[in-house]
């Protein structure tokens, strides 16, 4: 028998806090926190560090967490303005059997390793990736250098992005879910 959603949420958050990830709670709420996420090795994002805002719904783990990048990242499937991520894949495949480690150990690394320019949230990134791959690589690296270096990732980034409301992020997620479900989550090699 599965434990209550609130107990499961508390356990998952505590496990994440006790791991190698840096986790900061916001306003002492256990359902909302920020995690430092390092770009995966052997990707254009290697060496970058992003602050990821995580909000757990009251129905977690039965419903997936909401995630967004706080500091800027150049990626076809991440909205540059809001940090919103095309969450179709995680929402479609989410199961109460998953936990927060799946988000940080599987979903986000795959998102950065295998961008999908055919269903973009950042059309400029998608266009460059398809038509000018070398320029795309250079721009990703410029963004990493400017916005995602360990020493530059501070709470100032949090303050700059606070103007983006949750409704804006929800709009990004709902727009992405209106697209073709079959190809929205598939990663291009």
Write the layout of secondary structure elements.
Elements: H1 5-17, E1 23-26, E2 29-38, E3 49-55, E4 66-69, H2 88-93, H3 100-113, H4 123-131, H5 133-147, H6 155-161, H7 166-178, H8 181-184
Antiparallel strand pairs: 1-2, 2-3, 3-4
Helix pairs in contact: 4-5
Q: Could you explain how this protein is built, in words?
A:
With about 190 residues, the protein is α+β, with helices and mostly antiparallel strands. The protein has a single domain, classed as Ubiquitin Conjugating Enzyme (Roll), CATH 3.10.110. About 45% of the residues lie in helices and about 15% in strands. The chain has a 4-stranded antiparallel beta sheet, covered by helices on one side. Helix 4 (about 125-130) packs across helix 5 (about 135-145). The longest helix is centred in the C-terminal third of the chain and has 15 residues, at about 135-145. The radius of gyration is 16 Å and the shape is globular. It starts with a helix and ends in a 5-residue tail after the last helix. Residues about 155-189 have low confidence and may be disordered. Keywords: ATP-binding, Nucleotide-binding, Transferase, Ubl conjugation pathway. Belongs to the ubiquitin-conjugating enzyme family. GO terms for molecular function: ATP binding; ubiquitin conjugating enzyme activity.
